């Protein structure tokens, strides 16, 4: 269970909704990413997070699949369901 309120895009202000839906499109998911929804509570951090995630998940020596696997392992080690 989340300790932070995760707003649904339909319930968020327009700016936040656009950020959440852009994240969903960028990560190619059928659901809004939890971290993007967490940031809805601190909208001033959204642009920095978006830039960072583009850099982290962008092209590089490590494949996207390995990056996703690493993120999943770190989340599991931290008992984080995000």
Q: Decide which structural class fits the backbone.
A: mainly alpha
Quick one: overall form?
Answer: globular
- The percent range for strand residues is under 5%
The largest sheet is: none
Q: Compute the average pLDDT.
A: 84
Which regions have little confidence, pLDDT < 50, spanning 5+ residues? none
Approximate helicity band: 40-55%
Give the tally of structural domains: 1
Q: Calculate the terminal CA-CA distance, rounded to whole Å.
A: 10 Å
**Total number of strands:** 0
Q: What is the alpha-carbon Rg in Å?
A: 13 Å
SSE order = HHHH
Tell me the quaternary state.
Answer: single chain
Total helical segments: 4
Mind explaining what this structure looks like?
This protein is mostly helical. It has one domain (9-77). It has helices spanning 14-26, 34-38, 46-57, 64-77. Helix 1 (14-26) runs parallel beside helix 3. The chain is globular, with a radius of gyration of 13 Å. The model has no long low-confidence stretch (mean pLDDT 84).
List the helices and strands and how they pair.
Blueprint: H1 14-26, H2 34-38, H3 46-57, H4 64-77
Short description:
With 82 residues, this protein is an all-alpha fold. The chain contains 4 helices and no strands. Helix 1 packs parallel to helix 3.
Any descriptors?
single chain
């Amino acid at each position: 269970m989340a300790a932070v309120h995760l707003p649904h895009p339909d319930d968020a202000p327009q700016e936040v909704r656009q950020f959440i839906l852009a994240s969903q499109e960028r990560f190619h998911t059928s659901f809004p990413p939890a971290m993007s929804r967490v940031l809805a509570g601190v909208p001033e951090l959204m642009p920095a997070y978006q830039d960072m995630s583009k850099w982290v998940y962008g092209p590089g020596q490590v494949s996207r699949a390995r990056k996703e696997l690493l993120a999943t392992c770190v989340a599991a080690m931290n008992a984080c369901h995000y």
